[in-house]
Design a protein that fits this description.
By secondary structure, the protein is of the alpha+beta class. About 55% of the residues lie in helices and about 15% in strands. It is built from 9 helices and 7 strands.
């Protein structure tokens, strides 16, 4: 078996498998986590080949063979980190061997076409370069990135990028409270829940003193459908506007709903809903800017030092 070709196949497979992970997680500003995933996948793929580069090493009992690839006892030591019964161990080993053999046969078949694939060298080099750059950039950013985000910076970014914060559904913030329907003061309680000038603290005290129950948190935004499910679909979405009031009886309970605020589909979500996302985007923007500055500075420095030359005119 040509070990160099095998390595190329594995690295190429790693490149394809990890590209989507890298793109998705980078949007969340988790560059270091990406590196760990990429390297873990790469290590796993490299292991799957069980490429015998050092035949003199004592690797224990030979467990299986596929062509000239061999799986030894030492190669599966990682499977037994915790206590296992003899029966469990045997099942684990047999299952792993079967999986390993199928992987090796598939890779051997892939090798036959890979030998004629001139793109593999380029893909392997690109993958290696990307990993090295990613680690270098992450180290630079972790030491140089300003992670302090002020309130006015959050507000400015939110105001200037509202097209990124459009709601995909109808959102509602409301008071939704229930009381025992047999209470003699049920209608005065209704009036308190529906008041527009009552403070949150006063209303909370009234609900507690009258053994009421908050169905939803009035400080949190909910999807309209989430609230409607709690009412057994008694609400009409077209009626849901700020100030809308609704009450109904169900199984000995009287429910009161007062809509406080609404964001319709396609409208900008309130800042309190997207503040964490805003912070992530600010950090991502700073990170990209910092990396761009470093790349440009390195380029200019190496031009001045004549470490790089451009021959194409």
């Amino acid at each position: 078996m040509d070990g160099a070709i095998m390595e190329k196949i594995i690295l190429t497979k790693g490149l394809i498998l990890t590209k989507e992970i890298s793109n998705a997680m980078m949007m969340k500003g988790q560059g270091k986590f990406i590196q760990l995933i990429l390297l873990a996948i790469l290590a796993g793929l490299m292991f799957s080949s069980c490429n015998i580069e050092n035949e003199q090493e004592d690797r224990g009992e030979l467990l299986a063979e596929a062509g000239d690839r061999k799986l030894f006892e030492k190669d599966i030591a990682f499977l037994f980190n915790g206590p296992k019964s003899a029966a469990d161990s045997q099942r684990v080993i047999k299952s792993f061997i079967n999986s390993w053999l199928r992987d090796q046969i598939m890779t051997i078949e892939a090798e036959k076409t890979a030998k004629e694939n001139s793109d593999i060298d380029r893909l392997v080099q690109n993958y290696r370069d990307a990993l090295i750059r990613m680690e270098y950039e992450q180290n630079l950013v972790s030491n140089n990135l300003d992670t302090l985000i002020l309130k006015d910076q959050i507000e400015a970014f939110y105001d200037n990028n509202q097209e990124q914060f459009l709601s995909a559904s109808k959102l509602v913030r409301a008071r939704f409270v229930s009381f025992d329907a047999s209470r003699s003061n049920i209608w005065p309680l209704r009036n308190e829940v529906f008041k527009t000038d009552i403070s949150d603290r006063d209303l909370e005290e009234i609900v507690e003193l009258n053994e009421g129950e908050w169905i939803i948190n009035p400080y949190i935004w909910y999807n309209f459908q989430e609230i409607n499910i709690l009412t057994d679909n008694q609400l009409n979405r077209n009626n849901i506007i700020p100030g809308y009031e609704f009450s109904y009886n169900d199984q000995g309970k009287r429910y009161f709903i007062k809509v406080l605020n609404v964001v319709n589909e396609g409208e900008v979500m309130p800042l309190e809903m997207v503040e964490d996302k805003v912070k992530q985007l600010i950090l991502l923007e700073r990170r990209n800017q910092k990396i761009s500055e470093i790349r440009n500075e390195l380029f200019e420095r190496n031009i001045r030092n004549q470490q790089i030359k451009i021959h194409y005119q």
